[in-house]
Automatic annotation (TrEMBL):
InterPro entries: Arsenate_reductase-like (IPR006660), Thioredoxin-like_sf (IPR036249), Tscrpt_reg_Spx/MgsR (IPR006504). Keywords: Disulfide bond, Redox-active center. It comes from Lactococcus garvieae TRF1. Belongs to the ArsC family. It comes from the Bacteria. This is ArsR family transcriptional regulator.
Amino acid sequence: MIKLYFINHCYSSKRAREWLTSYNIPFTEINVAKDDLSTSDFLHILSLTENGIDDILLERSTMYKKYHHSFEESSLSEMISFLKRYRTVIRTPIIVDETKLLVGFTENRARKFLPRFHKNIYFDFMAENKAE
């Protein structure tokens, strides 16, 4: 099952929700500002990142700027506790399933969440337009 981690006032989160809905892709919404974020959710997301926790940190946030100097010395459990406490430091949207992760949103990168039949339609369409 796909999970969409979002914040209400985030334009990219809105676009991600609209994109998933437009393709009738079932997903669960988790409001980063309000909903409980479990340690297992964070561990799963982090297991799919390339650069660990840095991939999900919002460097523009006030809390990031205030505390980033201590991140290098923090353990994973300390960082997860920090993220649970200061949720504004989490980049959104985050789209995740069992094996795929997307932090932020662009349609091109989100296509990895499309079911195969949607991908085939897209590639057929692109091939037809390229031939013209």
